[in-house]
Amino acid sequence: MSPKTPEVSDAGAPRVAPRFYTLHDVAVVLATTDAQVYALVRSGELPAIKIGGRGQWRIEVTVLDEWIATQYERTASYVADNPVPESSRQPKPPTGDLFD
């Protein structure tokens, strides 16, 4: 199942947006692997629930959205605390302007 569902089913009935994603759905959203998502869930970093007799993992859509927002905040903090040293920066390529 794709994380984005059409608004209308093949039969013409409106579709309900999913409340939960599978591990694979989350992997697609994050452009990573199922194994990486499983590791995030098992470590407790990405909150999830187990359902059914086989214990399949599910991540609530709103929880994933909040987790992604938190990752942006953590990344911004990391970048602010760890600037790239001037010696490591790539020189800008010339643009052809007179004042390069």
Primary descriptors:
3 strands, alpha+beta, 3 helices, three-stranded antiparallel sheet, 38% helix, Multidrug-efflux Transporter Regulator, Chain: A, Domain 2, 100 residues
Walkthrough of the structure:
The chain is of the alpha+beta class and 100 residues long. The protein has a domain at 20-73: Multidrug-efflux Transporter Regulator, Chain: A, Domain 2. It is 38% helix and 10% strand. The protein is built from three helices and three strands; from the N terminus they run E-H-H-E-E-H. Strands 1-3-2 form a three-stranded antiparallel β-sheet. Strand 2 (49-51) and strand 3 (56-60) form a beta hairpin. Helix 1 crosses helix 2 (34-42). The longest helix has 21 residues, at 61-81.
Radius of gyration: 21 Å
Biggest sheet details: 3 strands, antiparallel
Tell me what the CATH architecture of the domain at 20-73 is.
Answer: Orthogonal Bundle
Tell me the β content: 5-15%
Structural class: alpha+beta
CATH topology of the domain at 20-73: Multidrug-efflux Transporter Regulator, Chain: A, Domain 2
Helix content: 25-40%
Per DSSP E runs of 2 or more residues, the count of β-strands stands at 3
Q: Number of helix segments?
A: 3
Q: Which spans have pLDDT < 50 for at least 5 consecutive residues?
A: none
Distance between the termini: 50 Å
Please write the CATH class name of the domain at 20-73. Answer: Mainly Alpha
